[in-house]
Design goal:
138 residues, mainly alpha, two-stranded antiparallel ribbon, 6 helices
Length: 138
């Protein structure tokens, strides 16, 4: 079940390949936005397939427009000297990263809490906690 087709993929090819893989496995996809199933009685729903194709084209176009607007916004901010982005080649050393997130590193060392729980306690993202945990294991 998905709320809308853009949750399956952003390109037409990805969406259609995914739905085809589900069809081969006998799995129906329910799209909540349109109250639509891709399979009914173990047969492909041709109306759903047609709508999927059109909707996935729309999702791909919407994603491309978002990227263009984002790029234009960054260029505009750069002209006003409000945004410069990350310096080319900039990378924090592992030891500096661990010391920057000392509270995360301490919880990893001193507890058996899950990554998700540590992220909740410290207010850092799950990916940050995972990264610190990986650096500590090296």
């Amino acid at each position: 079940m998905v709320s809308e087709i853009s949750r399956v993929g952003r390109s037409v090819v990805d969406v259609l390949n995914f739905v085809e893989m589900l069809y081969e496995k006998g799995i129906a996809l329910y799209i909540q936005q349109f109250n639509m199933l891709t399979m009914e009685n173990n047969h492909e729903n041709p109306i759903a397939k047609m709508l999927l194709q059109m909707l996935s084209i729309g999702a791909e176009m919407e994603n491309n427009q978002r990227k263009i607007r984002q790029f234009e916004g960054i260029k505009h901010a750069q002209l006003k000297h409000l945004y410069s982005g990350r310096m080319s080649g900039a990378k924090t050393s592992p030891s500096k990263l661990v010391s920057k997130y000392k509270n995360v590193a301490d919880l990893i060392d001193k507890s058996e809490l899950s990554v998700r729980r540590i992220a909740g306690i410290t207010g850092h993202s799950i990916n940050t906690v995972r990264k610190i945990k990986q650096l500590k294991e090296i």
